[in-house]
Design goal:
Helix content is 70%, strand content 0%. With 175 residues, the protein is mainly α. It has one domain.
Amino acid sequence: MLHLLSRFDHALKKTLEWICIVLFIAITLILTLNIVMRFVPLMSMHWFDEILELLYGALIFYGAAAVWVTHSHFSVGDWISKHIPSVRARFVYRLLVELCSLAFIAIFFWYALELTMKTEEQTTAFAMSRKWLYACMPITGGIMLLYSLKNMYLELAKIINPAAEIDLGREDLNH
């Protein structure tokens, strides 16, 4: 079971990485095309803002999910844990931090899903539903929610048995 979860983790990380790479390349190409069209006006770029908004939004949220899954997001560091003498208490502290993260992500996911489902607006150039622009938020919020639950499980397992090596793709941050 753990091997299957580890393979899923790896596949999800690679998928998020490639989504971000493709989005970044698309943004770069569209921005370059816009610059070229200013000097050599071969076509109208009336759709430029609309597509760029979609791509930037998706890049930001899929990128956020990628760093959440891999624990690559910036932070002030875990400088409190080293001042907690008990190993179990350290894991309780980290569980509380994960619980706060879970609360934030759950609220984000709920409101992002609500926004996506309730919107009736359409974009101006392509007349597509703005749900396509907002869809990246509940998708990535759901991914981050699942990984917050996974992180809480790992911390809870360490509280119960601090000596056990339970690793589902998360590096231990105790050093």
